Amino acid sequence: MTLVVKLAVLLDDRTLGLRPLVDVRRSEEIAWSATSELTDPSPFLGQGEVLLTTGLETVGWLDEWDSYVARIAAVGVLAIGLAVDLTYATAPPALIEACAAYDVGLFEVPRETTFVAVTRQVARLLQAEDESSTRAALGQQRELTQAALREDEPELLIEAVARVGQAAALVDPEGAVLVGPAGVRTDLLAADAIAEALNRIRDRGLRAAAGMSVSGGEILLHPLGVRGRPERYLVTAFEQRVTEDQRSSIVTAVALLSTSEERRRSRREAERQVRARAVELLIAGDTRTASVLLAAAGGGRLRVPSRVAVLRTRGAASRIEAALAQVESTALAGVVAAEAGEMVIVARQSRVDALVEDLAARGLRVGVGDLVPVADAARSDRAAGLALDLTTVDRAVVRWVEGVRRGVLEVLDSDRLSAFADTWLAPLDPEPELLATLRSFLAHHGSQLQVAEDLGIHRNTVRKRLDRIESLLDSSLADPQTRADGWIALQARAQ
After folding, report:
1. Contact status, residue 7 vs residue 105, Cβ threshold 8 Å
2. What would the pLDDT profile of 443-463 be if each residue is shown by its tens digit?
3. What is d(CA 386, CA 32) in angstroms, rounded to the nearest whole number?
4. Quick one: pLDDT at residue 319?
5. Residue 93 is part of a domain; what is its CATH number?
6. What pLDDT does residue 187 have?
7. Max alpha carbon distance in the chain (Å)?
8. How many domains does the chain fold into?
9. How far apart are CA 401 and CA 407, in angstroms?
10. Both 168 and 223 in a single domain?
């Protein structure tokens, strides 16, 4: 960690013999020491400075000390060093009271200690800090570079980044942790603050970064990559104000991680092309070539299942991408391909239900094909596509086999089915009694006696109505096709 020159280091230096009277803000960093005998030195002072004075122009002051200290406190002065045994034998009580009131440190400088000695010591401490910071920064960057060479172990680099501050992690665009967290203060990685920052910068791509204060420290957030939309972000947490050396080390880490991220994306794109080709081969029935291709690409991890169900999904590109990454991370799930807002999964039997549940939970529509031997994947794919076309906002998942079991109306497109019913029944619509007779006739499997009893009319009336129906439809009710079409039209009309 980068060292800082704290007020305590100066006060505790025995060679100077300084005597604290208002001993506050010891842990704060000294910026410089300045000497002034002005009655209002505030225009010439700044944040973190120590003011050295003999009080030469303040002889006789009483109430004036309050406004004097108030002005220098307002510009950020850290402490006052008052030389004693010169203008004052000891610090005036009013000065002590004012310093305590405005939280400004006060110490006495003995006569044998010159202001030059105090200033030189501050300068030496700052120079030592600068040299130490430089060495620490070089050591951190060397450690980061060495960790980055171990690309197969990204957690090593995140651990090295955590040592620059107090904690670090890699997160996705939604804030979910991908690698880590690492470090001694992982509690600083506040999930709500990270999610809020991501919402602000996500749409600004790789040029965006964010810094935010959290309870107990500060968080920096940087996107990773060199092209396209960021898929990963580096989050680093610090207990105190981030120094320039720490920022420099984080910039180095971002550059190393971005290079690694680009290589990871390139490897992933190559693997996705192989998997997409394997999906095409499986659906085409060429399981042998698909098996060889997957074995070569996946190092033996990817294998063709013996029984599969094809899943077809549709939804927002960002949701498809997230689902694709999830399926890819589970080698046993199946073989997957995605393009233009749709994804195809040739899923192994044991993973079908879990995949369907996960895809639906992500807000995607899912069509599920039949469970078949892998050689019949084409049939399952065709069924999955038809099932996907039947999905709606209120019915996100359609399993083709369940639809078939519920009847042909379940798997037909509702708009086309409605248009078919209207056109097929149009000749009968002017005479409602003909529609009722046709419905009863088909329901009773062509029994005119049961139609007569059902409708409470004479059998001769039933016969006349059936003749009229056949005339208007220009088709015989003895034809199975006519009966099937009529029943489908009447059921669609009823729905």
Report:
1. yes
2. 888 888 888 888 889 989 989
3. 76
4. 83
5. 3.40.1390.20
6. 86
7. 135
8. 4
9. 10
10. yes
| Ranges in the chain, pLDDT < 70 | 1-4, 128-154, 296-303, 329-334, 336, 339-340, 403-413, 495
Do 309 and 393 reside in the same domain of the chain?
Answer: yes
Amino acid, res. 100 = A
For the whole model, what pTM was predicted?
0.47
Residue with tokens 């590109």: 317
Same domain, 47 and 92: yes
Q: 């490897």: which residue's tokens?
A: 267
69, 30: one domain: yes
CATH number of 386's domain:
3.30.70
3-class DSSP assignment, residue 2: coil
In degrees and rounded to multiples of 5, residue 116 shows phi and psi of: -60, -40
Q: How far apart are the first and last CA of the chain?
A: 73
In a domain, 257, yes or no: yes
> How would you write 36-84 as a 3-class SS string?
CCCCCCHHHCCCCEEEEECCHHHCCCCCHHHHHHHHHHHCCCCEEEEEE
3-state DSSP: the chain helix, strand, coil percent, rounded to 5? 55, 20, 30
Q: Are residues 89 and 173 in the same domain?
A: no
- Which CATH number does the domain housing residue 423 bear? 1.10.10.2840
Element containing residue 398 per DSSP (H, E): strand 397-399
- Helices marked H in 284-367: 287-297, 317-328, 352-361
CB 184 within 8 A of CB 211: no
CA 158 from centre of chain: 17
Question: How many Cβ atoms are within 10 Å of 274's Cβ, its own excluded?
Answer: 18
Give which of 48, 100, 26 is closest to 69, Cα–Cα.
100
Task: Determine the structural domain holding residue 85 and report its residue range.
Answer: 7-124
d(CA 344, CA 328): 12
Question: Among 16, 202, 203, 22, which residue's Cα sits nearest to residue 113?
Answer: 16
